[in-house]
Design goal:
The complex is a heterodimer of chains A (532) and B (144). By secondary structure, chain A is an alpha/beta fold. In chain A, α9 links the parallel β9 and β10. Helix content of chain A is 30%, strand content 22%. Chain B has a five-stranded mixed beta sheet with strand order 1-3-2-4-5, with helices on both faces. With 144 residues, chain B is α/β, with parallel strands linked by helices. In chain B, β2, α4 and β3 form a beta-alpha-beta unit. Chain B is globular. The chains are: A alpha/beta (532), B alpha/beta (144).
Chain lengths: 532, 144
């Protein structure tokens, strides 16, 4: 006792210290009256006000906001190792095997290209032909960053007094969860409200050799050896992004596309993206499905596939086969029957319009939700708003419309709002006006970079004031370009307002303010020159 | 800086401090060898109860600046026989990280007679490190 007091006397900052003697504000006072609002302490019935199953983007955002609102919260997180044995720490898909490592590897790829472009600008780069990637160094840097994020996340939970349980959660009854730890021990906890934020994992096709020999996005970012010549099965954004950066890093990539690339996205833009990838050397096998993967004596993998149009079978030998054929929600292992949750779609996702399941106190957020964009910012925002509704008396619902997103292929594709196809489907071709243009980024001229796929378009209502329904952009830093326009779409921007916005020069984003040629007019959308 | 330490020190370190009063534990460390803190007991025995001042370095393997600072501290402190260096791996010592409110690494706290007398966060320049070491190894006049 006296030691602590002596220390306080000794502290030179005592007189100005804000932490001395002031009790922590009673956060519980923020809780608004309502039958949900009683802290567990008074209620006595439950261990926690909120138990979150899944420590990813959605789960953590909801947990932290709930604590801000005065709730007692526990977060369960557990990573079942991938078929190849890969596991990771707290933070969910985005931090560990998604957005973050993906963007870092994309950046590594771009930097590699920049080194070559630099020569045209006058940089004297010695032994240009010997420039190559050290895969081990790249993965080490990426993994070190991920570990630092895992640690900060854990420290943050602890500081916010959120109980973190590293166990796989399942329901015992509507208010009770059993967490199974790695060593097999189990822990039971009860909660007044429960949030399902378990996300998803890669789906493996049912072909010989898939699980035994193939890797997925779970494994690529920490792969213990350089991937070499890689076959990517699947042409959604995960497959294309991986094939893109692998190819740019010097690992030849082939992509098997079952139907169309970037299904669900604007197909004209998807075409631009794949054209660019092909021009960089990525081999695309359209209308092809994998048949089998076998391991050769050399350790390499022989993959066989079928062209569903020509019925022709092909095969080739690769060092790595990366499966990117979609992701499935981890709802099966939750034992939802025990909780009475029965609002699952055919694919196993949770149908919950306002994040509330058929059981009033059980909610879902993030990739596990049916029909919602599977994006980190969506999960975070929805999680936060949910916490405010549960514990802060808010009524604000999540707006899932007009969420901007970007595909980080070597030439990026950013978009917000409706694709042209969807706009035509909803409003009719006669009621839609599409403004479009090819453009030439200033920086591309000197190194003579390919500008054939630098294209953008605005999909708008045809009748005045021509409200913009969707914006699409293929080009460098597409994510940075589109983000601001997402706010504009939210405000209901019209073509007139867009065209009356003065651009910043020289940028690529300004091209949106220069749009003036419609598809309907048939005029040539290629630029004459810049500044005109 | 110090205020943050005070807050963190209130309950858990009070326990640690009480332990120190309750029993005298002689330190059996070889002079000049860096102390690797594996758990709370290690910390109490070899840092809080150390007759000599100790520079405690919070370190993480995934942290690039730590890989620069930690060897530098070793290089400067190991030759001294009136100052010890303790390394706390943040992944293995969550309690200590929490107690001392370490939010970023590298973090260095200076302990003398069981009390924290200084703290810095991040990779600081050689001058700051050297002046901290000078102060801790008794080159300053009074201890206030």
């Amino acid at each position: 006792m006296s030691i602590a007091m002596n220390f306080m006397e000794l502290c030179p900052h005592k007189s100005t210290c804000s932490r001395f003697g002031k009790p922590r504000p009673n956060l519980r006072l923020h809780s608004v009256a309502g039958e949900m609002m009683k802290p567990a302490g008074e209620d006595g019935a439950y261990d926690y006000d909120l138990a979150v199953i899944g420590g990813g983007s959605g789960g953590l955002a909801c947990a932290k906001e709930a604590v801000n609102q005065g709730a007692r919260v526990a977060v369960l997180d557990y990573v079942t190792p991938s078929p190849q044995g890969t596991k990771w720490g707290l933070g969910g898909t985005c931090v560990n095997v998604g957005c973050i490592p993906k963007k870092l590897m994309h950046q590594a790829a771009l930097l590699g290209e920049s080194i070559h472009e630099a020569v045209a600008y006058g940089w004297q780069v010695p032994a240009l032909d010997q420039i190559k990637i050290n895969w081990a160094a790249l993965t080490e840097s990426v993994q070190n960053h991920i570990k630092s994020v895992n640690w900060v996340t854990r420290v943050d939970l602890r500081d916010k007094k959120i109980d973190y349980i590293n166990g796989l959660g399942e329901f015992k009854d509507p208010h009770t969860i059993i967490a199974t730890m790695k060593n097999g021990s189990k822990k039971e906890l009860t909660a007044k409200n429960i949030l399902i934020a378990v996300g998803g994992r890669p789906h493996y096709p049912d072909i010989p050799g898939a699980i035994e020999y193939c890797i997925s996005s779970d494994d690529i970012f920490s792969l213990g050896h350089p991937p070499g010549k890689t076959l990517v099965v699947g042409a959604g954004y995960i497959g294309l992004e991986c094939a893109g950066f692998l190819n740019s890093l010097g690992f030849p990539a082939t992509v098997l596309i079952r139907s169309v690339p970037l299904r669900g996205f604007d197909q004209q833009m998807a075409q631009m993206v794949t054209n660019e990838m092909e021009s960089k050397g990525v081999k695309l096998q359209h209308k092809c499905v994998p048949l089998s993967v076998e391991k050769l004596e050399t350790g390499q993998l022989k993959a066989k596939w079928l062209n569903t149009e020509t019925q022709e079978q092909s095969e080739d030998v690769f060092d790595t086969v990366l499966i990117a054929t979609g992701r499935y929600a981890l709802t099966k292992q939750l034992n939802l029957d025990a909780a009475g949750v029965n609002c699952l779609s055919e694919s196993g996702k949770v149908i919950a319009e306002t994040e509330q399941t058929n059981v009033p106190h059980i909610y879902a957020v993030g990739d596990v939700l049916e029909g919602r964009p599977e994006l980190t910012p969506v999960a975070i925002h929805a999680g936060r708003l949910l916490a405010r509704r549960l514990f802060g008396g808010s009524t604000q619902l999540m707006d899932y419309d007009n969420v901007a997103t970007t595909v980080f292929t070597p030439l990026e594709y950013g978009c917000v709002g409706l694709s042209e196809e969807t706009a035509v489907q909803r409003h009719g071709a006669d009621n839609i006006e599409v403004y479009h243009a090819y453009y030439k980024p200033t920086e591309f001229f000197i190194p003579q970079r390919n500008i054939r796929n630098c294209y953008l378009k605005a999909v708008a209502r045809r009748e005045q004031p021509q409200r913009v329904l969707g914006l699409h952009f293929v080009g460098p830093v597409a994510g940075e370009v589109i983000q601001g326009f997402a706010a504009a779409i939210k405000c209901g921007i019209t073509m007139e307002q867009l065209m009356n916005t003065v651009g910043i020069h020289p940028t690529v984003a300004e091209e949106f303010t220069r749009l003036n040629i419609t598809k309907r007019s048939g005029k040539d959308p290629n630029p004459a020159s810049c500044c005109s | 800086m110090c205020s943050a330490m005070c807050q963190g020190l209130k309950s858990p370190v009070r326990r640690l401090a009480n332990l120190r009063r309750a029993k005298h534990i002689s330190t059996s460390i070889v002079h000049n060898e860096t102390i690797l803190v594996k758990n709370n007991d290690d910390f109490v025995n070899k840092v809080m109860n150390n007759d000599k001042p100790v520079i405690v370095n919070f370190h993480a393997e995934w942290c690039e600046p730590c890989k620069i600072l930690t060897p530098k501290l070793k290089e400067l402190i190991e030759p001294l026989n009136n100052l010890d260096l303790a390394i706390v791996d943040v992944e293995e010592n969550a309690d200590l990280v929490h107690t001392f409110e370490v939010k970023a690494v590298p973090a260095v706290i200076a302990v003398k007679n069981g009390l924290i007398v200084d703290k810095f966060i991040g990779l600081v320049d050689a001058d700051m490190i050297n002046s901290l070491i000078d102060r801790m190894s008794g080159k300053k006049k009074d201890e206030a």
